[in-house]
Amino acid sequence: MSEFAIEIDSIQKKYKEQHALKGVSFRVRQGSVFGLLGPNGAGKTSLVRILMGFSKQTEGNFRLFGLSFSPRLRKKIGYLPEKISIPGFLTGEEFLSFCGKLAGMRSPSIQKKSKNLLERTGIADVASKKVAGYSKGMLQRLGLASALIGDPELLILDEPGSGLDPKGYIDFRETLVEENKTKGTTVLLNSHRLLEVEKVCYEIGILNLGTLAAIGPLESLKEGKNRILVKVESMTSELDSYVRKISSELKIVENQIEFLPENEIDPRKIPAELVNLGANILRYERITESLEEVFLRVTGGNNE
Protein backbone atom coordinates (compact mmCIF):
# COMPACT_ATOMS: atom_id res chain seq x y z
CA MET A 1 0.00 0.00 0.00
CA SER A 2 1.19 3.53 -0.78
CA GLU A 3 2.61 5.64 2.05
CA PHE A 4 0.52 8.50 0.68
CA ALA A 5 -3.20 8.93 1.25
CA ILE A 6 -3.41 11.55 -1.51
CA GLU A 7 -1.22 11.97 -4.60
CA ILE A 8 -2.11 14.83 -6.94
CA ASP A 9 -0.27 15.09 -10.25
CA SER A 10 -0.58 18.17 -12.48
CA ILE A 11 -4.31 18.67 -11.89
CA GLN A 12 -5.95 21.31 -14.06
CA LYS A 13 -9.57 22.40 -13.94
CA LYS A 14 -11.06 24.75 -16.49
CA TYR A 15 -14.55 26.26 -16.45
CA LYS A 16 -15.17 27.64 -19.94
CA GLU A 17 -12.35 30.21 -20.26
CA GLN A 18 -11.47 30.34 -16.56
CA HIS A 19 -8.71 28.18 -15.07
CA ALA A 20 -9.62 27.25 -11.49
CA LEU A 21 -6.57 24.96 -11.13
CA LYS A 22 -3.35 25.27 -13.12
CA GLY A 23 -1.21 22.16 -12.84
CA VAL A 24 -1.42 21.55 -9.08
CA SER A 25 0.75 18.72 -7.70
CA PHE A 26 1.35 17.58 -4.12
CA ARG A 27 1.16 14.52 -1.84
CA VAL A 28 -0.28 13.96 1.62
CA ARG A 29 1.21 11.18 3.74
CA GLN A 30 -1.06 8.73 5.51
CA GLY A 31 -1.68 9.83 9.08
CA SER A 32 -0.96 13.49 8.34
CA VAL A 33 -3.21 16.46 9.08
CA PHE A 34 -2.80 18.64 5.99
CA GLY A 35 -4.13 22.19 5.76
CA LEU A 36 -5.13 23.56 2.37
CA LEU A 37 -5.16 27.36 2.51
CA GLY A 38 -5.93 30.02 -0.04
CA PRO A 39 -7.87 33.22 -0.67
CA ASN A 40 -11.41 33.07 -2.00
CA GLY A 41 -11.34 31.76 -5.56
CA ALA A 42 -7.92 30.13 -5.18
CA GLY A 43 -9.24 26.72 -6.28
CA LYS A 44 -9.55 24.95 -2.91
CA THR A 45 -13.15 23.78 -3.27
CA SER A 46 -12.60 22.85 -6.94
CA LEU A 47 -9.78 20.55 -5.85
CA VAL A 48 -11.85 18.99 -3.06
CA ARG A 49 -14.72 18.30 -5.45
CA ILE A 50 -12.32 16.54 -7.82
CA LEU A 51 -10.92 14.36 -5.00
CA MET A 52 -14.47 13.39 -4.00
CA GLY A 53 -15.39 12.43 -7.58
CA PHE A 54 -18.04 15.16 -7.81
CA SER A 55 -16.18 16.97 -10.58
CA LYS A 56 -13.79 15.79 -13.30
CA GLN A 57 -10.40 17.39 -13.75
CA THR A 58 -9.63 18.86 -17.19
CA GLU A 59 -6.10 17.44 -17.13
CA GLY A 60 -3.87 15.54 -14.72
CA ASN A 61 -4.43 12.63 -12.35
CA PHE A 62 -4.77 11.80 -8.68
CA ARG A 63 -4.61 8.67 -6.55
CA LEU A 64 -6.03 7.87 -3.12
CA PHE A 65 -4.13 5.27 -1.08
CA GLY A 66 -2.22 4.41 -4.24
CA LEU A 67 -5.38 3.67 -6.25
CA SER A 68 -7.13 5.49 -9.06
CA PHE A 69 -10.45 6.92 -7.94
CA SER A 70 -13.51 4.68 -7.98
CA PRO A 71 -16.88 4.94 -6.18
CA ARG A 72 -15.75 2.10 -3.87
CA LEU A 73 -12.97 4.32 -2.55
CA ARG A 74 -15.59 6.68 -1.14
CA LYS A 75 -16.14 4.21 1.72
CA LYS A 76 -12.64 5.10 2.91
CA ILE A 77 -13.51 8.81 2.95
CA GLY A 78 -15.43 10.93 5.44
CA TYR A 79 -16.54 14.20 3.88
CA LEU A 80 -17.92 17.45 5.27
CA PRO A 81 -18.92 19.94 2.53
CA GLU A 82 -18.75 23.68 3.00
CA LYS A 83 -22.53 23.93 2.91
CA ILE A 84 -24.21 20.85 4.35
CA SER A 85 -27.81 20.13 3.39
CA ILE A 86 -29.81 17.73 5.59
CA PRO A 87 -33.53 16.97 5.18
CA GLY A 88 -35.29 18.96 7.87
CA PHE A 89 -37.80 16.22 8.71
CA LEU A 90 -35.04 13.93 10.03
CA THR A 91 -33.74 14.02 13.58
CA GLY A 92 -30.00 14.12 14.22
CA GLU A 93 -30.09 10.46 15.30
CA GLU A 94 -31.99 9.44 12.16
CA PHE A 95 -29.56 11.27 9.90
CA LEU A 96 -26.55 9.59 11.52
CA SER A 97 -28.28 6.21 11.26
CA PHE A 98 -28.84 6.84 7.54
CA CYS A 99 -25.16 7.78 7.06
CA GLY A 100 -24.07 4.67 8.96
CA LYS A 101 -26.12 2.45 6.66
CA LEU A 102 -24.58 4.14 3.62
CA ALA A 103 -21.18 3.27 5.10
CA GLY A 104 -22.20 -0.40 5.31
CA MET A 105 -22.53 -0.54 9.10
CA ARG A 106 -24.92 -2.80 11.03
CA SER A 107 -27.63 -1.35 13.29
CA PRO A 108 -26.03 -2.19 16.69
CA SER A 109 -22.74 -0.60 15.59
CA ILE A 110 -24.57 2.44 14.21
CA GLN A 111 -26.40 3.04 17.49
CA LYS A 112 -23.24 2.75 19.58
CA LYS A 113 -21.14 4.92 17.27
CA SER A 114 -23.89 7.52 16.85
CA LYS A 115 -24.25 7.96 20.60
CA ASN A 116 -20.50 8.41 20.97
CA LEU A 117 -20.23 10.93 18.13
CA LEU A 118 -23.24 12.95 19.25
CA GLU A 119 -21.65 13.31 22.67
CA ARG A 120 -18.21 14.15 21.29
CA THR A 121 -19.57 16.80 18.93
CA GLY A 122 -21.71 18.33 21.67
CA ILE A 123 -25.20 17.80 20.22
CA ALA A 124 -26.42 14.78 22.21
CA ASP A 125 -29.07 16.96 23.87
CA VAL A 126 -30.70 17.80 20.51
CA ALA A 127 -30.18 14.43 18.81
CA SER A 128 -33.88 13.51 19.02
CA LYS A 129 -35.02 16.84 17.60
CA LYS A 130 -35.72 17.50 13.93
CA VAL A 131 -32.86 19.01 11.98
CA ALA A 132 -35.14 21.80 10.72
CA GLY A 133 -34.76 23.45 14.13
CA TYR A 134 -30.96 23.25 14.23
CA SER A 135 -28.75 26.33 14.12
CA LYS A 136 -25.94 26.53 11.56
CA GLY A 137 -23.44 25.54 14.24
CA MET A 138 -25.50 22.49 15.22
CA LEU A 139 -25.72 21.45 11.56
CA GLN A 140 -21.96 21.76 11.24
CA ARG A 141 -21.42 19.57 14.31
CA LEU A 142 -23.86 16.99 12.94
CA GLY A 143 -22.04 17.13 9.62
CA LEU A 144 -18.74 16.35 11.33
CA ALA A 145 -20.37 13.42 13.15
CA SER A 146 -21.73 12.11 9.83
CA ALA A 147 -18.26 12.35 8.27
CA LEU A 148 -16.82 10.23 11.11
CA ILE A 149 -19.59 7.62 11.43
CA GLY A 150 -17.94 5.07 9.13
CA ASP A 151 -14.44 5.32 10.71
CA PRO A 152 -12.91 6.76 7.53
CA GLU A 153 -9.24 6.41 6.70
CA LEU A 154 -9.31 9.84 5.04
CA LEU A 155 -11.28 12.82 6.30
CA ILE A 156 -11.88 15.70 3.87
CA LEU A 157 -13.27 18.83 5.49
CA ASP A 158 -14.29 21.85 3.40
CA GLU A 159 -14.42 25.00 5.59
CA PRO A 160 -15.45 23.01 8.70
CA GLY A 161 -15.34 26.02 11.03
CA SER A 162 -18.17 27.76 9.20
CA GLY A 163 -20.98 28.64 11.61
CA LEU A 164 -19.20 27.39 14.72
CA ASP A 165 -18.95 29.57 17.83
CA PRO A 166 -15.67 29.50 19.84
CA LYS A 167 -16.84 26.56 21.99
CA GLY A 168 -17.97 24.67 18.89
CA TYR A 169 -14.63 25.27 17.24
CA ILE A 170 -12.73 23.95 20.28
CA ASP A 171 -14.92 20.82 20.33
CA PHE A 172 -14.30 20.35 16.61
CA ARG A 173 -10.56 20.72 17.04
CA GLU A 174 -10.42 18.23 19.91
CA THR A 175 -12.47 15.70 17.94
CA LEU A 176 -10.21 16.07 14.93
CA VAL A 177 -7.02 15.68 16.94
CA GLU A 178 -8.41 12.61 18.73
CA GLU A 179 -9.35 10.91 15.44
CA ASN A 180 -5.88 11.54 14.06
CA LYS A 181 -3.96 10.43 17.15
CA THR A 182 -6.01 7.38 18.14
CA LYS A 183 -6.87 6.01 14.68
CA GLY A 184 -4.25 7.50 12.39
CA THR A 185 -6.94 9.12 10.26
CA THR A 186 -5.51 11.27 7.47
CA VAL A 187 -7.11 14.71 7.37
CA LEU A 188 -7.32 17.21 4.52
CA LEU A 189 -8.58 20.47 6.01
CA ASN A 190 -9.61 23.10 3.48
CA SER A 191 -9.99 26.49 5.11
CA HIS A 192 -9.32 30.20 4.89
CA ARG A 193 -9.23 30.47 8.71
CA LEU A 194 -5.53 30.59 9.49
CA LEU A 195 -5.85 30.01 13.23
CA GLU A 196 -8.01 26.94 12.59
CA VAL A 197 -5.31 25.45 10.39
CA GLU A 198 -2.35 26.47 12.56
CA LYS A 199 -3.80 24.75 15.64
CA VAL A 200 -4.23 21.29 14.10
CA CYS A 201 -2.19 20.87 10.90
CA TYR A 202 1.30 19.41 10.54
CA GLU A 203 1.71 20.38 6.90
CA ILE A 204 0.37 23.27 4.85
CA GLY A 205 -0.30 23.89 1.17
CA ILE A 206 -1.24 27.37 -0.02
CA LEU A 207 -3.18 27.80 -3.25
CA ASN A 208 -3.26 31.15 -5.01
CA LEU A 209 -4.97 31.89 -8.32
CA GLY A 210 -5.13 28.18 -9.14
CA THR A 211 -1.47 27.38 -8.48
CA LEU A 212 0.36 25.90 -5.49
CA ALA A 213 2.19 28.92 -4.07
CA ALA A 214 3.83 27.14 -1.11
CA ILE A 215 3.89 23.73 0.56
CA GLY A 216 5.72 22.12 3.47
CA PRO A 217 5.72 21.42 7.19
CA LEU A 218 4.15 24.31 9.09
CA GLU A 219 7.28 25.18 11.05
CA SER A 220 9.46 25.10 7.92
CA LEU A 221 7.17 27.53 6.12
CA LYS A 222 7.20 29.88 9.11
CA GLU A 223 11.01 29.84 9.13
CA GLY A 224 11.28 30.61 5.43
CA LYS A 225 11.71 34.39 5.79
CA ASN A 226 13.05 35.09 9.26
CA ARG A 227 13.54 38.69 10.31
CA ILE A 228 16.43 39.43 12.64
CA LEU A 229 16.31 41.71 15.68
CA VAL A 230 19.62 43.06 16.99
CA LYS A 231 20.21 45.38 19.91
CA VAL A 232 23.71 46.82 20.21
CA GLU A 233 25.36 48.98 22.87
CA SER A 234 25.84 51.81 20.40
CA MET A 235 24.99 52.31 16.73
CA THR A 236 27.84 53.21 14.38
CA SER A 237 27.99 54.26 10.74
CA GLU A 238 29.77 50.97 9.93
CA LEU A 239 26.92 48.92 11.41
CA ASP A 240 24.33 51.07 9.66
CA SER A 241 26.08 50.62 6.32
CA TYR A 242 26.43 46.84 6.78
CA VAL A 243 22.79 46.09 7.64
CA ARG A 244 21.56 48.33 4.81
CA LYS A 245 23.77 46.38 2.39
CA ILE A 246 22.45 42.93 3.42
CA SER A 247 18.79 43.83 4.03
CA SER A 248 15.68 43.91 1.86
CA GLU A 249 13.59 45.37 4.70
CA LEU A 250 15.04 47.47 7.49
CA LYS A 251 13.92 49.37 10.60
CA ILE A 252 16.38 51.14 12.92
CA VAL A 253 15.27 52.73 16.19
CA GLU A 254 18.18 54.16 18.19
CA ASN A 255 20.40 51.16 18.98
CA GLN A 256 17.91 48.47 17.87
CA ILE A 257 17.84 47.08 14.33
CA GLU A 258 15.17 44.86 12.79
CA PHE A 259 15.81 43.61 9.26
CA LEU A 260 15.12 40.87 6.73
CA PRO A 261 18.35 39.50 5.22
CA GLU A 262 18.59 39.10 1.46
CA ASN A 263 18.12 35.50 0.29
CA GLU A 264 21.82 34.90 -0.40
CA ILE A 265 22.85 35.95 3.12
CA ASP A 266 23.49 33.19 5.67
CA PRO A 267 21.86 34.43 8.94
CA ARG A 268 24.22 32.26 11.00
CA LYS A 269 27.20 34.40 9.90
CA ILE A 270 25.66 37.77 10.75
CA PRO A 271 26.59 37.89 14.49
CA ALA A 272 30.28 37.34 13.70
CA GLU A 273 30.19 40.06 11.03
CA LEU A 274 28.63 42.48 13.51
CA VAL A 275 31.30 41.71 16.11
CA ASN A 276 34.02 42.22 13.48
CA LEU A 277 32.57 45.68 12.89
CA GLY A 278 32.97 46.47 16.58
CA ALA A 279 29.42 45.84 17.75
CA ASN A 280 28.75 44.94 21.37
CA ILE A 281 25.63 42.79 20.90
CA LEU A 282 23.13 43.00 23.75
CA ARG A 283 20.40 41.00 22.03
CA TYR A 284 20.21 38.88 18.89
CA GLU A 285 16.97 37.16 17.90
CA ARG A 286 15.59 35.51 14.78
CA ILE A 287 11.88 36.32 14.52
CA THR A 288 9.81 33.51 13.02
CA GLU A 289 6.99 34.54 10.70
CA SER A 290 3.41 33.94 11.75
CA LEU A 291 1.25 31.83 9.45
CA GLU A 292 -0.61 35.01 8.54
CA GLU A 293 2.64 36.64 7.42
CA VAL A 294 3.57 33.55 5.38
CA PHE A 295 0.11 33.55 3.79
CA LEU A 296 0.25 37.25 2.86
CA ARG A 297 3.80 36.89 1.52
CA VAL A 298 3.13 33.96 -0.80
CA THR A 299 -0.26 35.21 -2.01
CA GLY A 300 0.87 38.79 -2.43
CA GLY A 301 -1.95 39.90 -0.13
CA ASN A 302 -4.52 38.57 -2.60
CA ASN A 303 -7.84 38.03 -0.85
CA GLU A 304 -10.24 38.31 -3.75
From TrEMBL:
Tell me any Pfam family this protein matches: ABC_tran
SUPFAM superfamilies in the cross-refs:
P-loop containing nucleoside triphosphate hydrolases
Q: Which domain of life is it from?
A: Bacteria
Q: Which UniProt keywords apply?
A: ATP-binding, Nucleotide-binding, Transport
InterPro entries reported for this sequence:
AAA+_ATPase, ABC_transporter-like_ATP-bd, ABC_transporter-like_CS, P-loop_NTPase
Q: Name one GO molecular function term.
A: ATP hydrolysis activity
Q: Which residues form the ABC transporter domain?
A: 6-234
Where is coiled-coil annotated?
A: none
Q: Which family does it belong to?
A: Belongs to the ABC transporter superfamily.
Protein name listed in UniProt: ABC transporter, ATP-binding protein
Native species:
Leptospira borgpetersenii serovar Javanica str. UI 09931
